[in-house]
Amino acid sequence: MKRAIWGGLALALLAVGAARAETRMFSYDPISQDAKRLTGAGVTVLFKPGLLGGGRPLKVLATGVPAEARLKDGRARDLGPGGLKAMSGVDDDAALYEVDAKAAQGKIYLRAFCPGSTRLWLSFSTIAVRRDLRIQAFGDDPSAEGRARLCGTLDFSYRGEWRLPGRDAPDPMEDWTANPQHPEISN
Fold it and tell me: CB under 8 Å to 89, separation ≥6 — which residues?
């Protein structure tokens, strides 16, 4: 009997997880000087919602121009001893991701956000509906062996959610709006 209850509970959790695994896209307007300087019109974040709220960012897109940074999991120890907790003036409980400099426009983000660095990390506050967003940018510091530096604190106000066509997330760098009808819709 207990086994059946646990099995049913596990199936229910898997169903909820699968339903929540849909990719979503939120846009944000810049508030802080760093956000205005580095992003202009703001950013759009493509993310997977988490099971317990919040989300895992996959890409950061410049809202005003076609520029994309793909993200991979960041390791706090790459920032130096103590990671975020050892740095002053940073959100030490934020989720950390590294910009993939080899993918899309990752190198452009690296040069823009942290000139002189060879690696770029972004920490994100919780991604949720109608919630403002803080992104902090960190770059490796060639003059401080093994320690990263804070390059900017970017504060954004929530603007809205993009509706993604179809079941699969589109390539945000592809202009699918040229064909106003989605592939799954027929006349």
Answer: 150, 153
Judge whether 36 and 63 are in contact, CB under 8 Å: no
Residue 163: strand, helix, or coil: coil
CA 178 – CA 151 distance, rounded (Å): 37
Determine if residue 111 is left, alpha or beta; phi over 0 gives left, psi from -120 to 50 gives alpha, anything else beta. alpha
Q: What is the pTM of this model?
A: 0.76
In whole angstroms, give the CA distance from residue 7 to residue 141: 50
Query: Which residue, among 85, 40, 35, has the nearest Cα to 67 in the 3D structure?
Result: 40
| pLDDT by 10s per residue, the chain, length 187 | 555 444 444 444 444 444 446 899 999 999 999 999 999 899 999 999 987 667 899 999 998 888 999 999 999 999 999 889 888 889 988 999 999 999 989 999 999 999 999 999 999 999 999 999 999 999 997 777 778 999 999 999 999 998 776 655 556 566 554 544 444 433 3
